[in-house]
Amino acid sequence: MNELNKEQKALIERFGAMLKSMGSTAAIGKVLGYLTIAEPPHRSFEDIQSNIKLSKGAVSNTLKIMELQGLIEYFTVPGDRKRYFRLALKNQEYVLMRQITETDRMISIMQDAMLLRPAGNTEFEGELQKFIDLYKLLQKKILEVIKEMK
Asked: Considering the entire predicted model, what is its pTM?
């Protein structure tokens, strides 16, 4: 990929800001943005590091986290010692199913909290129940979308 133009750099920054606002890190957003616009859609560690202007340590940690989250994958080319990273787009059903599992855990913990907390604050308990119901609805809808996409 040639030198990034001004619009591409701005888009990568937007990805970073978006992911940060969602509770992730700007670095994950920047890598996600860079790999989304890169052509070819796979890049070496060095390409990523030089184009998103992060330290080697930050890029290394970010790539490890993204790989664990199922967002990216890497491959090697025979005779080339470099690893090439790309978005794990075919892996997104797995990522969504993992989120559903984590949501199950959250619902279970919140339901346990409802049972263990002292009764009497009906306003708070109602809001907590709405929170639980929302997460149950989200799970159901995500499963419907996955089924529809198959």
From this structure: 0.75
